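Go through this pair.

…
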Amino acid sequence: MKYDHPELRHRLAAEYVLGTLQGKARDRFIALMAKDPEWQRITRAWETRLNPWANALPPHAPPEQVWANIRARVGGDFEPEPFFSLAFWRGWAFGATAAALMLLTFVVLRPAPAPLLELAVISTPEGKPNWLVRLDEPHQRLSIATLFPVAVDKDKALELWAIPDGKAPVSLGLLRMNGKTAEVELSDQGVQRLAMAGTLAISVEPSGGSPTGLPTGPVIGSGKPVLKI
């Protein structure tokens, strides 16, 4: 692999910062970065570009039902016995052990939520990163977060496009922004379109979407996927 190719360097650095570079590929990248200042510079640049999303993305707190399930598994509320009671400490030790075992069972056996895969960073025409596109693969849903929301007229909407290399753009759906985030549900055809995309782009279209099946308004952002699905 020609590691001196600029586009490859930026793609690998972006994947490393996003956490999608895994296994031996990640080990090779770390080794290259350790001995090459240019790799370090590119990686720092991607960290600077992507780190703002740590604050832009909404926090996801565990549902209250999770805590209710834990309380139910460890026996719910109970009346404390006197602090210096030997029986209390024996009971506490037994209860703590049981609680730990139950909590371990809960954590291990409960299916973990599917992670969102960092798919692409979409930048403005001036090269300023403004949208982070993530994929919830099992549920075929895209999650889009923006650093600086784009204001559009009431009769307009933002539309997300997949552009296969050398081919015409195809729509992935409208971005109905809710503050700084939006979600796009993908059909099976949409997943196929996404898999073929060499570039993702966002354009301003009529509120119902492009009437022609192609971008008709200004393209306000584009970027290459850093993850192949």
User: Anything to note?
Assistant: The longest strand covers residues 197-206.
